[in-house]
Amino acid sequence: MASLYNQVPSVSAVFSLYASFSAIMMLFRTVINEIVPKGIRDYITVRFVDFFSSYFQFESSFTFVIEQKWGSVDNQTFRAAEAYLPTCLAGLSTEKLVVGCNLKNPSDQISSNSNRGSSGSAPTWNPAGQLKLGVPVDTKIIDEFEGIHLEWTLHSTVMETYPYEKRYFHLTCKKKFREKIMTDCFTHFVKSAQKRMSHRENLNIYTYNQQHSYWEPAIFEHHATFETLAIEPKLKTTMIDDLDAFSKGKDFFKSVGRAWKRGYLLYGPPGTGKSSMVAAIANYMNYHIYDLQLQSVSNDGQLRKILTTTQNRSIILIEDIDCGSDASSIRKTKGKEQVSSTSEGISLSGLLNFVDGLWSCCAEERIIIFTTNHKEKLDPALLRPGRMDIHILMDYCTTFVFKKLVAMYLKIDDHALIDPIEELVLEVSVTPAEVTQQLMVSKNADVALKGLLELLETKKMRKEDDAKVEDEGEIEEAET
Ligand SMILES: Nc1ncnc2c1ncn2[C@@H]1O[C@H](COP(=O)(O)OP(=O)(O)OP(=O)(O)O)[C@@H](O)[C@H]1O
């Protein structure tokens, strides 16, 4: 320690060294000034400064800010980053990670391929199997793109007004890679995110929260599929073929200059499976559902805003369109289709704009479904060819539908009561909902089918009585 102390130069030695160095530098400067012309000196100075400033500038960092909202709508790049980043988290050495799980049986997971044909089962608690990683706030996530070092950070700022939180990503790289990141890296991570997003593990059903102006999600766990839906085989094949063609149709829709969307009008009496069909479509396509209550939309402007904040690959569902708003009757009452919006509700033209007008192009791969119990009440403008691509009648039970329900609910395909019930099904109108209600009364096929037979016999008697009353009415009318 003492010898080390002895080696430190004294203050006077340092001072005399500095004085000699200054004298040499002054001499050197004078010589340079004398022998190098001013023009050359200036040129060298400029090049020297340029080199170092550009070096430091190039080496300095550059940050892309990716905000959650782009104007008033969701920023798709932010959503892509949200979907992409969890793929980088598993091997990350970090002090923080967001982990979570949900109430879902892995065998239940819905993907466009795996779910086709699955019947679903009750959700079970399986945290270990479902553990997921999320992006923590204010934590650097190190990423790499073609050897370029990248840093992602999710920030969150509390705001005084709704939505009370502003979230945004910072993506930082060296300034010299700015162009490359913009052109190649963004494309790369958006593509990876698209793949991830197309394999949604959870489906959501959204309802619009008027008070705070946003779509409020809830996990959608309806187990209806095309296998559990009792419909005629022809309808099932038509639907599946149509959906398959639609999901693969991006290039086709582009080539014919149409928006990549499909419209279905489901109509028929209550309890014939319209909502179940919507659920089957959502599960088959792996699409979220946006359940829009037309009554709660105050005008066309709001309708536009609501619909532009929905995601791609989703279903926009408007149930009971005949009684939802003025939309079905406005044309009749005002005498023409192109009416402007009023403070009382939306106009038919506002709605049609989303079905097949310019606003229908504001999202991709979207299915619009209207349901109604009274197709005859709808405005002809809604029914015109090309508006809703397919009109699907969900009707009373046929013998095929009845037998399919019996096979599903009672696990039998043969029973002494099946033939008499089939005959009655042909004579009276009974909905699949009424049949399933009876079939669920007991697991014992004798009990369940007997109850169903009695229900149908009662319906038949009532139908005969009604016919009698009608005949008598007609005779009375003819006599008067
Ligand atoms: N075709 C069907 N296949 C299987 N189950 C069905 C079918 N139709 C109805 N059901 C059963 O009846 C119940 C009610 O059906 P659903 O709500 O889908 O009918 P809906 O036509 O949408 O009725 P509403 O017009 O009253 O909304 C469902 O939960 C389902 O169990």
From TrEMBL:
GO molecular function: ATP binding; ATP hydrolysis activity
Annotated AAA+ ATPase domain residues: 260-398
UniProt cross-references to SMART domains, sorted A to Z: AAA
Catalyzed reactions: ATP + H2O = ADP + phosphate + H(+)
CDD domains xref list: RecA-like_BCS1 (cd19510)
Keyword Transmembrane recorded: yes
GO biological process: response to stress
InterPro entries: AAA+_ATPase, AAA_N_dom, At3g28540-like_C, ATPase_AAA_core, ATPase_AAA_CS, Mitochondrial_chaperone_BCS1, P-loop_NTPase
Keywords assigned by UniProt, alphabetized: ATP-binding, Hydrolase, Magnesium, Membrane, Nucleotide-binding, Transmembrane, Transmembrane helix
Family: Belongs to the AAA ATPase family. BCS1 subfamily.
PANTHER family: BCS1 AAA-TYPE ATPASE
Protein name: AAA+ ATPase domain-containing protein
